[in-house]
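Supplementary Methods. Inverse-folding protocol.

Structures were first reduced to a discrete structure-token string of length 374. This string, shown here, constituted the complete conditioning input.
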């Protein structure tokens, strides 16, 4: 009889964080033969603190690392927190990628003006530019990605058999969307307020659909988002839409789901997207979705989700497309039913079973290598 697999989950520990929510959902959904130990990321840039965090994983068979560049912050030789953490792991690491994989590049490629300090910096890093990313990301035994662009990116640094494409899992809600329960002419966009999410473009769309309201069910996550939200509010005032646009701020889960599920359509006017936790919330509620035709959303639609794709480069067409959609109850119902089915087949429980199998495979390979090592 095989023993339980000991997995250390390395992730941020803050409640208002999409990566935290993802990591917690997944850890909680793991089968009984996978024992989870939570290892919280340090909040500062101290390399010693990151090394200590790595030390907390000792005794685990495998470490599940959640990587998003903002969590590790620095892309620099000798000051790289990802390297400080990964180099001090004893067990193999499976890394889930939550965003792009930044590389170390000369500043002359992207910075204008280019000064003397920039030249000295590039000279100091000259030996690292060609191999830094391969070395940095090569520290992982295996990568988990959620979109095809991230798969293509990860396979630049790891062999294809060390990269698994797994669509973003979907949480099970406390309620669900029902067409007959929609009592308001309301669009909703769930999630943190971020500048790349295209809110300004949708404000123009809203002006073309008289009588409809829009709720942004979320709030800013950091200081940069707070500054952006102030600009967005000014824009709402200038367009005279204050009586038709509501920004809720951060909401507890049950209140959030109750509010979102009252809307007719969840709208995602994003300019770009990764495997979106915000989208997964709407899919989990089984509600109709309209989203820009960016690669991550297109992949999800092609996999069977009920998403009405809006041309990303032609926001002037969104008003007519959405007007047509909300006036067609049978289309809304078809999208909702497709999303309910999609959510069931892409739940965290199903994702956890797939990952548990992968974890055992990676841990077993590592154990075999340890046996044959001199």
């Amino acid at each position: 009889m095989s023993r339980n697999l000991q997995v250390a989950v390395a992730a941020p520990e803050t409640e208002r964080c999409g990566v935290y929510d993802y990591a917690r959902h997944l850890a909680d959904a793991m089968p009984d033969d996978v024992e989870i130990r939570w290892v919280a990321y340090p909040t500062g840039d101290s390399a010693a603190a990151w090394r200590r965090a790595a030390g907390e994983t000792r005794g685990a068979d495998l470490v599940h690392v959640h990587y998003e560049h903002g969590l590790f912050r620095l892309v620099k030789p000798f000051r790289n927190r990802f390297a400080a953490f990964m180099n001090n792991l004893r067990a193999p690491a499976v890394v889930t990628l939550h965003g792009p994989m930044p590389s170390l590049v000369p500043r002359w490629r992207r910075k204008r003006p280019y000064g003397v300090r920039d030249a000295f910096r590039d000279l100091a890093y000259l030996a690292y530019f060609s191999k830094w990313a391969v070395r940095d990301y090569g520290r992982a035994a295996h990568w988990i990605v959620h979109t095809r662009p991230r798969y293509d990116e990860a396979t630049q640094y790891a062999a294809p058999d060390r990269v698994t494409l797994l669509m973003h899992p979907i949480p099970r809600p406390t309620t669900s969307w029902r067409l007959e329960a929609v009592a308001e002419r309301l669009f909703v966009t769930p999630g943190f307020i971020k500048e790349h999410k295209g809110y300004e473009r949708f404000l123009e769309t809203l002006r073309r659909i008289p009588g409809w309201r829009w709720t942004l069910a979320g709030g800013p996550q950091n200081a940069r988002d707070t500054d952006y939200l102030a600009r967005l509010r000014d824009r709402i005032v200038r367009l005279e839409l204050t009586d038709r646009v509501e920004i809720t701020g951060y909401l507890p889960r049950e209140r959030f789901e109750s509010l979102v599920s009252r809307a007719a359509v969840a709208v995602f006017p994003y300019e770009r997207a990764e495997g979106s936790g915000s989208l997964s919330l709407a899919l989990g509620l089984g509600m109709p979705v309209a989203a820009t035709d960016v690669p991550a959303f297109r992949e999800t639609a092609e996999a069977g989700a009920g998403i009405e794709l809006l041309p990303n480069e032609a926001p002037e067409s969104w008003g007519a497309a959405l007007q047509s959609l909300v006036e067609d109850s049978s289309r809304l119902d078809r999208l909702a039913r497709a999303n309910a089915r999609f959510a069931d087949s892409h739940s965290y429980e199903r994702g956890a079973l797939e990952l548990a199998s992968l974890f055992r495979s990676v841990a077993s390979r590592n154990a075999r290598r340890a046996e044959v090592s001199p």
